[in-house]
Amino acid sequence: MATDLINRRVVRVPDVVGRPFIKATIVLEDAGLAKIVTLYRESYEDRDTVLEQRPARGQMVYEGTEVTIWVARRGYLENLPAIYRRSDGIGRNLVRELCFVFEHMFDSVEVNLIDGWRFYDPHVAPVEFLDWLSGWTAFTLDLDWPEPQKLYRIRGTKRGLALFLKLFTGQEPDIDENTWPFKGFRVEADGAESGARVGLDSVVLPPVDLAHCFVVTMPMKYETVATETVIRIHRIIQMEKPAHTNYYLRFAEEKGDVELREFFAIGLRSGIGIGAEVVEDSEDNP
């Protein structure tokens, strides 16, 4: 126990009196004081304004020390008839105290009713609600990803795809839009400098709209990547890309002069029909 106290960092308690409750909790958590006890006190200050704090501001305490804050509330008593608001000779009101007990018990329900919009915004929704919210947009969350990294707003964008691939692989991918790695099945002949002459510079390949294509290059060698990882990379791309687009996944290659060429070319680099002899079988041959 003594060793734990020695290893704990000493922090200064920030001043949160007069701040809204939400901002006060953020300030305390940033200072290393995440254990916060919230109590309500009847006051005519704005709702959820911090009225008092303990330990007081400026005190030096160990990181993780419990901090108690009193927050302004009008209480349920204001919704009752005036007769229940009377106090006894020493200023005590049993009904007021009972109302504050119920307010502490059911405050979470009231907060959900007032701030219900939070459940539909992935940036501020509770973590346990994100899985259900993702089902509305057909978005699948990976259980291996840290909670703060479950993002929705940039889904379907180049930035979003690069971010999700980096989260999974730890590598920054290179995404080239409006391009495709192959020119197709080209048939070349003498004098054809810019394309094939079959049907006038034709490309034997289904038409590809480059405006809807992109190439993802992962900065890692294919030999070093497990098959399961390749499959998951494909799944991430398929989930994050727009439905009408086509993609091509490739991995880093050895450094050197690499020429982008067609995957099959006749008359350009092949030996088909060049220097070949055609021998006809004769009837005398066995």
User: Do you know the CATH architecture of the largest domain?
Assistant: 2-Layer Sandwich
Going across the major beta sheet, what is the strand order? 2-5-3
List low-pLDDT spans.
272-279
Integer count of domains: 2
Q: Outline the biggest β-sheet.
A: 3 strands, mixed
Quickly count the helices.
Answer: 6
- Give the termini distance in whole angstroms: 99 Å
Helix content estimate: 10-25%
Mean pLDDT metric: 76
Task: Output the radius of gyration.
Answer: 35 Å
Helices and strands, with pairings:
Blueprint: H1 2-7, E1 10-12, H2 21-30, E2 36-42, E3 50-54, E4 60-62, E5 67-73, H3 94-114, H4 130-134, H5 158-169, E6 174-177, E7 185-187, E8 203-204, E9 213-221, H6 227-240, E10 246-252, E11 264-266
Helix pairs in contact: 5-6
List keywords for this structure.
2 domains, 286 residues, elongated, Trypsin Inhibitor V, Chain A, alpha/beta, three-stranded mixed beta sheet, 6 helices
